[in-house]
TrEMBL record:
This is Acetylcholine receptor subunit alpha-type acr-16. Residues 31-235 form the Neurotransmitter-gated ion-channel ligand-binding domain. The lineage of its organism: Eukaryota, Metazoa, Ecdysozoa, Arthropoda, Hexapoda. It comes from the Eukaryota. It comes from Orchesella cincta. It is found in: Membrane. GO terms for molecular function: extracellular ligand-gated monoatomic ion channel activity; transmembrane signaling receptor activity. InterPro entries: Neur_chan_lig-bd, Neur_chan_lig-bd_sf, Neur_channel, Neuro-gated_channel_TM_sf, Neuro_actylchol_rec. It is a multi-pass membrane protein. One of its GO terms (cellular component) is membrane.
Length: 422
């Protein structure tokens, strides 16, 4: 009986020693180090021995890409955020752990700075940095490089669309700690983000970016934050092809119509067809550009004002046809100051052709189509109306002069439009 009890005790001791040896053999230096570091570690407390000490977090950004939702006025920036700080609880002697100088931890295991986007436009449960692992060095330095997506509101200015340049900003700072508890440190002599691995955007071209630290004081307490600003310009080649060039064609059609005689049927046809095209493009541009601001795009104003100018050109043409070709029962001479202007050099330059003299012959038969005046100069309007008024050529030439003036006015207006747009 005594012998069996001794055997049982010896067997139990051997089993315990075997389990201990197996456990010791399975425990690596890394797992032992992790267990020792996490023993008694509080991830919800700032990693300082004295609560009056300041935790300094070094911050840098590697810009990966961005996109802009113009209809919702939402800007998204994709980056790698580089965060480095010192955690006094995570320090060890490498010689005691197989010369291990660094070890990895999950994001939920260690304290992390509570950096938050102040102008956030994402969901209320904020998690900008995701659940990536941290690297801890034996010197107590912690390095965290999480892939980051910042989503913020950005009010766009489409005044110069499609040649517009937009500016969007992101404000980042601690949500619960002031500058005496958590200070943000930016790289020295660096005011821009790293764009080495930047992925070009399909619609936008990055012009410039800035990365600065600010300190605001509330009741004498400092609150540091970081301001990221991106300036980017629209890639406008496709918009130029489908929107701007047709606008140039509409302007050219109006000017060509003004160069034709008011009495010609082609002029009315060109104006009517151009009005139809302008209406279609006005609706197309309106549906293409987001309606998210008080600043109306110049290209939309161009098509709107061009439609008004086309309607006025149509009314102008009808009035000139009446002025130039309507028969008058009694001679109505032009006022003397108008006659004087018709004889001036500017009038000759605008009308280009020599001004006809007053015709006093009535056209009959086949001559009615050309309406030759007394000097053999053809009536530029070709109205086909028999002349019984000896001053008819003066009225026709006045209409011709007014048409040239309208042509010059329209040309100047369209040049101003395009200079403002481009």
């Amino acid at each position: 009986m005594i012998i069996s009890i001794k055997l049982l005790v010896i067997t139990s001791l051997l089993l315990s020693l075997g389990i201990s040896f197996i456990h010791a053999a399975s425990e690596t230096d890394t797992s032992r180090l992790r267990k020792d570091l996490l023993t008694g570690y509080d991830k919800y407390s700032r990693p300082v021995q004295n609560h009056r000490d300041t935790t300094r977090v070094k911050v840098n950004f590697i810009l990966k890409g961005f996109d802009l939702d113009e209809r919702k006025s939402i800007f998204n920036m994709h980056a790698w955020t580089v965060l480095v700080w010192e955690d006094g609880h995570l320090k060890w002697d490498p010689k005691s752990y197989g010369n291990i100088t660094r070890v990895h931890f999950a994001a939920h295991e260690l304290w992390q700075p509570d950096l938050t986007v102040y102008n956030n436009a994402d969901k209320s449960e904020i998690d900008h940095f995701g659940n990536t692992r941290l690297i801890v060095y034996n010197s107590s330095h912690v390095v965290w490089v999480p892939p980051t997506k910042f989503q913020v509101p950005c009010q766009t200015n489409l005044r110069k669309w499609p040649y517009d340049t937009q500016t969007c900003g992101i404000n980042i700072g601690s949500w619960a700690h002031d500058g005496t508890m958590l200070d943000i440190v930016t790289p020295a002599n660096i005011s821009t983000m790293d764009i080495t691995d930047f992925r070009p955007n399909r619609e936008w071209e990055l012009v410039d970016n800035s990365f600065i630290k600010r300190i605001k004081y509330f009741v004498g307490v400092p609150y540091p934050d970081i301001v990221l600003t991106l300036n980017f310009a629209r890639k406008s080649s496709s918009h130029t092809a489908c929107v701007v060039i047709p606008g140039l064609a509409i302007a050219a059609a109006i000017l060509i119509a003004f160069w034709l005689p008011p009495g010609s049927s082609e002029r009315l046809s060109i104006l009517l067809v151009t009005i139809l095209i302008n209406v279609l493009y006005l609706y197309y541009v309106y549906s293409l550009i987001p309606n998210n601001g008080d600043s109306v795009p110049l290209v939309l104003l161009f098509y709107r004002d061009s439609l008004f100018m086309l309607a006025f050109a149509l009314v102008w043409t009808v009035c000139l046809r009446y002025l130039a070709a309507t028969k008058r029962d009694s001679p109505v001479p032009l006022p003397s100051f108008i006659m004087g202007f018709l004889e001036s050099l500017p009038a000759k330059i605008l009308c280009l052709d020599p001004r006809p003299t007053t015709g006093r012959r009535e056209n009959t038969g086949a001559e009615g189509n050309e309406q030759s005046d007394g000097t053999g100069t053809a009536n530029p309007f070709g109205s086909g109306v028999e002349k019984k008024n000896p001053f008819q050529d003066d009225w026709a030439w006045l209409a011709h002069l007014l048409d040239r003036v309208a042509f010059m006015v329209y040309l100047v207006i369209y040049l101003i439009f395009y200079l403002a747009l481009l």
